[in-house]
Amino acid sequence: MSNVILAVLTKVETVPCILAAAERLGVLLGGAKIEALVMRVPPLSTILPTEESLTKEQEQHIRQHEAERSEAIRHVFDKWKERHGGTGEPSWIDEEGIIEALVKKWGERADYIIVGQPPAHGSRAEYDALHAALFVSERPVLMMPTQAGTDFGKTVAIAWRDDKFSLHAVMDALHCIQRSASLHVLMGYREGAQLPQIPEVLTEHGMAVAEHDLLIGKDPFGAQLLAKAHEVNADLLVMGAFVHSAWRNMLFGGVTRYMLDHADLPVLMRH
């Protein structure tokens, strides 16, 4: 049975990167059906609490803007579809609705979700899409920075700590890193503490790995992980996604927050 990859498309500029990443992930998985999801923002959801109503003119303007955005994305999708060489006919999904609900609806039935990395001053839709994919869909999420290469999966780095989030991420990654040329495990430790051990889940699956122990200091540990990933020439980083609160306006764990803001290579995450 083929895997299903949900590619969440939010703006025209990032569509080529997201679709190329979806196609590459499909290759690593040994075949996959790609579903492209475009979500149109409902006009009522744009109203601020301080505003009393939405005029017909405003509603028409918002719907027209969303229709034009969807049409522009569809154009890029159709051009890519003509060249697509993967398994299965790519699907186009265009729905109006709350982003969290739509990502949950379509994400829950997919094996992997691909979303773009929100830029420093990105739109609310970009942040909502990533948030929903990571913490609502409960699926593995590949976050793609726009500048990242899409020929990933050859040299893989795993940011490991002994918790369920890292384990979930590694278990999902096993399906697409079996043929990696090299695999590196990056593990943090504090001064005076016992050095961490290679995750048993990797040795149990017969995977040869290189171990890297990183001393946790005063600097952000996310910066150390990213630097080491580049040092070993990793083209994909696998890690658990940690969050301090389940509320809508949540606080991400320090390493997760750093990667969301600074990662410049594909990051496969799982909450």
Description:
36% of the residues lie in helices and 22% in strands. It has 271 residues and is of the alpha/beta class. It has two domains: 142 residues, Rossmann fold (3-Layer(aba) Sandwich), CATH 3.40.50.620; 116 residues, Rossmann fold. The chain has a ten-stranded mixed β-sheet with strand order 3-2-1-4-5-10-9-6-7-8, with helices on both faces. Helix 3 packs parallel to helix 4 and helix 7 packs across helix 8. The longest helix is centred in the first third of the chain and has 28 residues. The relative contact order is 0.15. About 3% of the residues have low confidence.
Question: Outline of this structure?
Answer:
The protein contains 8 helices and 10 strands. The chain is α/β, with parallel strands linked by helices.
Number of helices: 8
> How many runs of DSSP E, i.e. beta strands?
10
What is the share of helical residues?
A: 25-40%
Q: How much strand content do the residues show?
A: 15-25%
Average of per-residue pLDDT values: 89
Rg result: 19 Å
Shape: globular
User: What is the top-level CATH class of the largest domain?
Assistant: Alpha Beta
Stretches with pLDDT under 50, minimum 5 residues? 244-252
Provide the CATH superfamily of the largest domain.
HUPs
Spatial arrangement of strands, main beta sheet: 3-2-1-4-5-10-9-6-7-8
Based on the structure, what is the oligomeric state of the protein chains?
Answer: single chain
Series of H and E elements: EHEHEHEHEEHEHEHEHE
What class would the helix/strand composition place it in? alpha/beta
- Distance N terminus to C terminus? 25 Å
Number of self-contained structural domains? 2
CATH architecture of the largest domain: 3-Layer(aba) Sandwich
What is the name of the CATH topology of the largest domain? Rossmann fold
Tell me about the largest β-sheet. Answer: 10 strands, mixed
